[in-house]
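Issue: copy button drops trailing tokens. Both records pasted manually instead:
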Amino acid sequence: MRILINDIMQFSDDAPDEIKSPALSDIYTDTDNFTFSFDEAKTINCIGFGYTDATQIQITNDTDTKTITITKDAPYQNGLYIIDSITTKATVHTFKITHNGSYIGRVAIGTYRTLGTGISKENGFYTSNENRVTKSGAVIPGLGGFSGRSIDLDVRYKIDEDVYDDIEFAYSSQIMRGFPFFLQLNDEQHKLSANMFYFYGRTTEPITKLQSSTYKFLYSYKFMFLEAF
């Protein structure tokens, strides 16, 4: 899988609040473009999108433009999109995103990591709905719940120093706060629905302990993702 662990959009002081919110229902509708800047030059090679009616999205700096085409309908377009690297200049650290839609939810940017996953995939569904069974055995359907897809992916000895650093940098600002991850389940597609190529998922609990049994700097972790909205 490809995963964006450290969303550097969270460290831009002038990015719209709706764009940085982990809740996709917090949509930005003021305009079809927005800019965001950083204190130093940044290089990115992926963008995560969640909940938008746009089909064409462009990210630009002063000299370069990258275009992302979205072909899937919501919610199946929520996920990670790979682009050729784009870097802000040494003196101008600003990006601009332009889209052809009327609204856009969370946008994340950064450097994706490729993590090979174990042969066994645990793919299914989850719900927050709580039904009640009466003493006579009648079922009273729960009200107000929600449901989504789930997938467990076991990463064995693929977490190297770069991935570890991403986790450390993002931990206080995103991971421990329950921010969902943007995923592209490219290598897993032969075992999954086509609608799970792009995925926006939170872990059942924040990442805690990584496991290692080798002499190298390589760790393991079992990601248990629940679809987020």
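Record 2 (pasted manually too):
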Amino acid sequence: MLPAFLEAIRATTQPCTLLLLLPPVVMAIVTRGRWSAFGAACVGAVLGGWLFIANVVALDGWQLQLSGALVVAAIGLVIAAPSTARLRWVATPGVEAATAGLVAFAATLWWRPCIGEELGAILTGARGGRSGELPGMTAYMLGAMMPVLAVVLAVRAIDPSAAAARRYGWLAGGCGMVVAAAVALGRHDELVTTLTRWTTS
């Protein structure tokens, strides 16, 4: 499990991991580094990783576009909630955590990973029996979430004022919404192709 965990950390430096990492990083910032949101994002990523190796869910076409639109809406709601009376319920820890988990889950389904030795072995082993590969895939996905943990720790260490947190939230959320909007507009394949080319160049 440790080799899979370490390989995932190394893979986070590659552009092909951007689609997996950016949405949960955005949620870490807009939720002001809440541990509950980070924990939910890890659960969402692990669940998505399990479905990935099991080949149970493979979004394509309108499904990808719908998931992108939902992520745009989710990020927008979490950003707007603190300053909108009717949306204050969205700013509660439980709702923010659930939203972070769903966003991370969607990002996992957008992801087209760089297949390293450990991930390749996990995917190969899953053909003969998926349950035996679940610990390795769990370790891999948790390793992939380490940059998100780093962002959570940075936000908590900085402890920005409410006004600064809103500014950072809008900036980060805007970046996440642009990527999700590209998926919603049917640009997923172009994003994957570009990120893969950057990875191999």
